[in-house]
Give the backbone structure.
Amino acid sequence: GENVEQHPSTLSVQEGDSAVIKCTYSDSASNYFPWYKQELGKGPQLIIDIRSNVGEKKDQRIAVTLNKTAKHFSLHITETQPEDSAVYFCAAGESGGSNYKLTFGKGTLLTVNP
Amino acid sequence: GAGVSQSPSNKVTEKGKDVELRCDPISGHTALYWYRQSLGQGLEFLIYFQGNSAPDKSGLPSDRFSAERTGGSVSTLTIQRTQQEDSAVYLCASSLAHGGGYEQYFGPGTRLTVT
């Protein structure tokens, strides 16, 4: 089955700096890669996703890159703000067919210091 | 519109008791998923529903865990004879259709504590 590794487990940055979280996956059939943000006491919230037919996707201060050959994908947050502080999860899934599962990384606790 | 809702938000139970956790998915979402999140861990897949059917129950940790879904909407996760290791946050998610490429939207979770 799919295995997703996520690094780092904790990340502390100063407000205004950039933050990068990296994930690797094992199953070459995976072609859908969402990122979730989880604030304390809340459920994970989808913030951005990327499919394997593109290499990069941006949404304001957030971007995700995908390297299918190396089987890794990354989340980039620029101009970080204190409200970006949360746990971030990457995941991998297979679009289409009967495969419905998302396999999640163990999460990264991001702290943005004012 | 309304998101995924779960109840109760918190549940404290004694070891050996049964508990029921409820999930109300987003209206129109045919696929529903249950996950478990232990402290400091990622999300562990438990079970998936397409309509009222659960094609794969292999993620359920033991036969003390069961789930059902009625009317293609509300789902209930039942844990019988709870053990301390069952303590975790149980998350429910729904998506428009099955398939790993459809966005899953999560509820706020139920925090279960077994004493």
Observations:
- Chain B has no helices and eleven strands.
